[in-house]
Write a structure and sequence with these properties.
It is a single chain. The chain has twelve helices and twelve strands. The chain is α/β, with parallel strands linked by helices. An eight-stranded mixed beta sheet has the order 1-4-8-5-9-10-11-12, with helices on both faces. The protein has a two-stranded antiparallel sheet with strand order 2-3. α2 packs across α3 and α4 packs antiparallel against α8. The radius of gyration is 20 Å and the shape is globular.
């Protein structure tokens, strides 16, 4: 549920005039990648009919993904990396046609990096329901129109079932490691519980065993912010011109989310009570710098994401409960056979570390016994993306195990 683009996963900073100029012009009705756009480094795998847990059916589906390194003849060096709510498959690589931002984990993945692509074959899919090449609400349905509001409700388990199909298509029977953070950590955990024989090593970073009532409540106001935007039109906005889509609601949802991703310590130390300009915000029309910061990132987000996808993915995240219909969380975690790294951030107010400790206590084979690794960081939930040296060290421990 983090920012998960390279430009965003850095310490917060006041917005400059140059930053503001980047967002001149009206935002598109959707920031989704669409057929006909440059594919960039994406690859695509198409599948037949897909039936969801809820009984709905997609007559066909497609997953976009990217790879680095080479699959060895034994097919035992494959590593899957699973992105968070607003991320995508572009883990590593420059910005360019098809990729508006550079890779979001370039310090972690690459030749000689903690996940060394000279050794490992790395696969990163864009999740089902997303908006960066995989089938989602902005995709064209069988009738020639966008799925839009007709797109089915998805669960975390649905999305993992789609990823299992991708693994089959790639000829990967067993992953050397499945690694995910935030929502991607939910997927990684589900992999290890639902198909334990296919996961040798597991990394769950800043993710809970189940979405709590508090987390669902935080999500609900973001969904409402999008749905009450008059330009959302019940999800049927894809024919709208630039500036006439639900960008205000989507930007507001993003602003709300950002407050959960960073810590009070960081925001207070970075911005204090500074003004954005020389004009006072105390009754004279000026703004506090932190307000402009939230506006900038909210508006920027609308140019690379889709409002309907945001709804589908947040609802999928709310479905997350690894113990559902499995006898409860502890019984489900006991199914995991993978050697596991569980990691949290001490200042994470979105998914607090008590959830990671519960996962560590329940999985039989972890690197660190009954407790998760807890990193000290001022960056809150996004610390797992920003504290790359520490995160890389622990991922290296896992891959050497």
């Amino acid at each position: 549920m983090d920012w998960q683009t390279s430009e965003d996963t850095v310490p917060s900073a006041p917005v400059t005039e140059a930053d503001a100029r980047l967002l001149l012009g009206r935002p598109p009705a959707t920031g989704a990648w669409r057929d006909g756009d440059p594919p960039g480094d994406r690859r695509f795998e198409a599948f037949g009919a897909f039936r969801t847990e809820g009984g709905r059916e997609l007559p066909a589906m497609r997953l976009a993904y990217e790879t680095w390194g080479e699959l060895n003849p034994a097919r035992d060096n494959a590593v899957m990396i699973l992105h968070a709510l607003t991320g995508d498959s572009h883990v590593r690589g420059p910005a360019g046609p098809g990729h508006p931002t550079a890779g979001w984990w370039s310090d972690i993945v690459g030749p000689g990096a903690p996940i060394d692509t000279d050794r490992w074959f790395v696969v990163a899919p864009n999740m089902l329901g997303g908006c960066q090449g995989s089938t989602g609400p902005a995709s064209i349905g069988p009738d020639g129109y966008e799925w839009a509001s007709r797109f089915p409700y998805l669960t975390i388990r649905d999305q993992v079932a789609a990823q299992v199909r991708l693994a089959d298509a790639l000829g990967v029977d067993r992953w050397a490691a499945v690694i995910g953070g935030s929502m991607g950590g939910m997927h990684a955990l589900e992999w290890a519980v639902s198909v334990p024989d296919r996961v040798e090593r597991l990394a769950v970073l800043s993710a809970p065993p189940a979405n709590t009532a508090d987390q669902i409540a935080l999500n609900s106001v973001q969904l409402e912010a999008i749905q009450i935007d008059p330009r959302f039109q019940g999800g049927e906005y894809y024919d709208a011109g630039d500036g006439d889509g639900p960008h205000r609601g989507l930007a507001l949802a993003r602003r709300m989310a950002l407050l959960n991703y960073r810590s009070p310590t960081e925001l207070n130390s970075r911005f204090q009570r500074s003004w954005q300009s020389g004009k006072s915000p105390l009754g004279h029309g000026g703004r506090f710098a932190v307000e402009s910061y939230l506006d900038f990132h909210g508006n920027k987000f609308t140019r690379r994401f889709d409002a309907n996808s945001y709804l589908v993915l947040v609802e999928a995240m709310d479905s997350h409960d690894v113990g559902r219909d499995r006898g409860g969380i502890e019984d489900a975690l006991a199914r995991v056979t993978a050697t596991t790294l569980v990691l949290g951030i001490d200042s994470d107010r979105l998914f607090p570390v008590d959830g990671q400790h519960r996962i560590a206590r329940g999985i039989p084979h972890t690197l660190d016994g009954d407790a998760a690794v807890v990193l000290a960081s001022d960056f809150g939930h996004d610390g797992f993306l920003i504290e790359t040296a520490a995160v890389g060290h622990h991922l290296g421990r896992l891959l050497q195990s």
